[in-house]
Amino acid sequence: MSRSGTMDGGQGRAMIRRGAQPRRRPPAKGRARKKAPARSPFASLPPPVVAIARKVANYALVALLIGGVAAGVWAMRLPQMVGTAAGEAVGRAGFAVKKVEITGIDRMDRGPVEDAAFSAQELAMPLVDLAEIRGRLLQQGWVKDARVSRRLPDTLVIDIVEREPAAIWQHRQRLHLIDADGRVIAQLRLAGTPLPDLPILIGPNANYQVAALDRLLASSPQLKPMLDGATWVGDRRWDIRFRSGETLSLPEGEGQARAALAEFAERDGTMRLLGQGMLRFDMRNPGRIIVRPAARPAADQASASVRPATDNGEERPPASTAAADARSI
């Protein structure tokens, strides 16, 4: 505030002028408090551990980025395209399949093997899928194993291991050639083609009993050359058929059947049971053999002119002569 002394004319009074009032200062506002910085999760860890954790996080981020790029490249099938182009270039250089060499075939038809092999003909050698060709070959019944390899510059080599036929399996009016494991090798024709000289097994699941039948016959090897076939009855026991026409019914259980067959072989050696016109030998009851001879000729089976009648007035057929003549030995 300033003062200026001036005299008022005539009255001699002094007047004091006041200048403009000074600006008042606004009241001081409270100072805003700064927020404390967020505490790092690693603050409580020792510095060496923090450094290692940061390095691991950086490596993980880099690995994630690389994985994403690799996934994108794979999705665009770039490696396959590059591999195919390189293989075709090798083929144009003269390394293409031009010859197929097949070994190991003795019994099976070469056609299926050639079909699988020549599907790769004219392909560049690096592009031939050996596993795919081998898989197609193993689907053939005769093929137990197969080895497929390349022989540079232009040959595909196939080595076949055939299955060994062990028996003929008759099932649902069809004949199948099978191996010792029961695997069906091929279907046989009923007419027009001579059958292999192998035993014929009849019955459901009889193909899986080849090994059991071999063990059974091993106990009486003198009977094996006379075997014509066998029927797996009720999925539990064997009926053995001999080349001379007889059938031997064995009991259930592998041990009991082996003992019964050994006894029959011993009696055949002393009494000559086979080849004597018998129809069936039944050894299902332990300790005895029930023998049923073959049916006699019609001239020997003449019966009385009057046959006994049934309850409804019809004539009763005569009883089976073979059943009537059954005896135990």
TrEMBL record:
One of its GO terms (cellular component) is cell division site. InterPro entries: Cell_div_FtsQ/DivIB_C, FtsQ, POTRA, POTRA_FtsQ_type. It is found in: Cell inner membrane; Membrane. It holds the Pfam family FtsQ_DivIB_C. Residues 95-163 form the POTRA domain. GO terms for biological process: cell septum assembly; FtsZ-dependent cytokinesis. It is a single-pass type II membrane protein. Residues 20-37 have a biased composition (Basic residues). The keyword Cell division applies. Its main location: membrane. The keyword Transmembrane helix applies. The chain crosses the membrane at residues 56-76. Keywords: Cell cycle, Cell division, Cell inner membrane, Cell membrane, Membrane, Transmembrane, Transmembrane helix. Residues 1-41, 294-329 are annotated as: Disordered. Residues 294-305 have a biased composition (Low complexity). Belongs to the FtsQ/DivIB family. FtsQ subfamily. Essential cell division protein. PANTHER family: CELL DIVISION PROTEIN FTSQ (PTHR35851:SF1). This is Cell division protein FtsQ. It comes from Edaphosphingomonas haloaromaticamans.
